[in-house]
Design brief:
Alpha-Beta Plaits, 12 strands, 2 domains, 8 helices, alpha/beta, eight-stranded mixed beta sheet, Rossmann fold, four-stranded antiparallel beta sheet
């Protein structure tokens, strides 16, 4: 299946033809349409096909960077030879290898378990609230809950975060608790870009749709100005969100079209 092309300015095209090319791609809302429950989310087969071809292309590195665990991303993707950064940078897996977890996070595993138990107790009394245990971090999803419960839910989760000395972050209808360590998608993205020498005259494109992706956009542009940053989910005719991204596409279908264009362009360079 061929997706309708997304116009790519000539100046942007020039920033994506150097080698190596690193693609840093969020998953939910960027490659996969947002689903009512995290376990319902799927990557369209057409998108997976393009990603598989990109991962097999010489000089191209594909990296998925997600709030999900590495294992969960791999379950969804079915793409070999790709890097996976999970739990907002806490886990890093080289292509086709097991993930490694940052040593600074290990002492908080029991604390996250405790937070999961306490959040599950709260969720039992709030229909539509789902708790996701990702071992090193955890999420409380309220997409299926009635909007009137959100203020009290946020207050309860904030109290747990304070009492357990965890970080509380907000996403699209989700609250996340993480260890208080200096790691986020921005830190992880820059580390990988440096490791693969993409910021040494190569090309970098990163795409995401949520608040946590803003760290990635900002950090990459600070370290390597030619990085191409893309916010997904900006609807035509509606105000764009406050974002550090330089460009935007409307939805996951347009993001697939951009990836398809990149694949075609890289093939033309060979």
């Amino acid at each position: 299946m061929t997706t309708a092309a997304v116009p790519v300015p000539a100046a942007v095209e020039q920033r994506l033809i150097a080698t190596p090319l690193l693609l840093l791609l969020d998953v939910d809302g960027t490659l996969s349409p947002i689903a009512p429950r995290p376990d319902y989310a799927t990557i369209p087969e057409e998108t997976q096909d393009i990603l598989r071809e990109l991962a097999r292309t010489a000089g191209v590195h594909v990296a998925f960077i997600s709030g999900r665990s590495v294992a969960d991303v791999r379950r969804m993707m079915g793409v070999e030879h790709a890097w996976v950064i999970g739990n907002h940078g806490i886990e890093v897996a080289e292509p086709d290898r097991s993930p490694r977890t940052r040593e600074t996070v290990a002492p908080y595993e029991a604390t996250i378990r405790q937070a999961v138990r306490r959040c599950e107790e709260i969720a039992r009394d709030k229909p539509g609230v789902l708790v996701e245990n990702k071992r090193w971090t955890m999420s409380v999803h309220y997409r299926l809950a009635h909007p009137t419960i959100v203020p009290s839910l946020e207050a309860d989760i904030s109290t747990i975060a304070t009492q357990l000395r965890l970080l509380l972050t907000h996403g699209k209808e989700v609250l996340e608790l993480r260890p208080p360590v200096d790691i986020d998608k921005g830190v992880a993205a820059v580390e990988l870009a440096r490791r693969l020498h993409a910021v040494d005259g190569g090309s970098v494109l990163c795409a995401g749709d949520d608040r946590t992706d803003e760290d990635m956009f900002r950090s990459l542009r600070e370290v390597y100005a030619p990085s191409v940053t893309v916010r997904v989910g900006v609807e035509p005719g509606r105000p764009a969100p406050d974002t550090n991204a330089e460009f935007s596409v409307g939805d996951t279908t347009e993001m697939r079209a951009l990836l398809e264009w990149i694949l075609a362009r890289r093939r033309a360079l060979v």
